[in-house]
Amino acid sequence: MIKSLSILLTMSLVLTLFSAQTHHVEAKTMIKAGTSLFDEEMTESNRVIPEPETKQDVALLLNLPVKHMNDVKQVTKDQLSVTKYSVQEIEMLAKLISGEARGESFEGKVAVASVTVNRVLSSEFPNSIKEVIFQSGAYTAVSDGQYDRQPGKDAYRAVYSALIGEDPSSGALFYYNPETATDNWIRNRHIIKEIGKHVFTR
């Protein structure tokens, strides 16, 4: 009788230990699976393309300084020191795109913005967005007042794309509308490509 009881107790202990081990394995598997799903979600969210709608959105995405940005709620330390572009220049470029490329596709808007950025980087032009935009006779929109219109969100998106290095113009320094251009000198420049109503040249 005692022997039988001992055998039953031993079997019960073995079953208990086995059950506990099984639950431990299942728990570990669930934790691993959960972590994997979380990682996948994080990776997916990191692939979301930001769509800035204001100059503040663009500045924050580019990690730019936040001077004169009183309505920005969150500021990081780096944003107080980076000075490659200013918030004012973001607004200027958005206004330029709105005036020069209104009615063009998003690609066309980015291309126009890229020409301005390319000029800033070229030794042939001034070295700031503000100086390039307001160079005498450089842009029709500045001359005829279209520059003064309030930019839409597509203009800010185009600014962001151009400032992070996207360049549909393929390095162009000039562009013009063949139907409305009055300066013959620009028609003699090497054509790189056409986007919408604009011809892009070097």
Mean pLDDT over the residues? 76
| SS content category | mainly alpha
Element-level helix/strand string: HHHHHHHEHEE
N/C terminus separation: 102 Å
Q: Major β-sheet, in short?
A: 3 strands, antiparallel
The portion of residues forming beta strands comes to: 5-15%
**CATH architecture annotation name of the largest domain:** Orthogonal Bundle
In angstroms, what is the radius of gyration? 30 Å
**Name of the CATH homologous superfamily of the largest domain:** Cell wall hydrolase SleB, domain 1
Instruction: State the strand order across the main sheet.
Output: 1-3-2
The CATH topology of the largest domain corresponds to: Arc Repressor Mutant, subunit A
Could you name the ranges where pLDDT drops below 50 across 5 or more consecutive residues? 20-47, 66-73, 77-83
Key traits:
single chain, 202 residues, mainly alpha, Arc Repressor Mutant, subunit A, 2 domains, 3-stranded antiparallel β-sheet, 3 strands, 6% strand, globular
Verbal overview:
- The protein is mainly alpha-helical and about 200 residues long.
- It has two domains: about 1-50; about 85-200, Cell wall hydrolase SleB, domain 1 (Arc Repressor Mutant, subunit A, Orthogonal Bundle).
- About 55% of the residues lie in helices and about 5% in strands.
- The protein has eight helices and three strands; from the N terminus they run H-H-H-H-H-H-H-E-H-E-E.
- It has helices spanning about 1-45, 55-60, 85-100, 105-120, 130-135, 140-145, 155-165, 185, and strands spanning about 175, 190-195, 200.
- A three-stranded antiparallel beta sheet has the order 1-3-2, with helices on one face.
- Strand 2 (about 190-195) and strand 3 (about 200) form a beta hairpin.
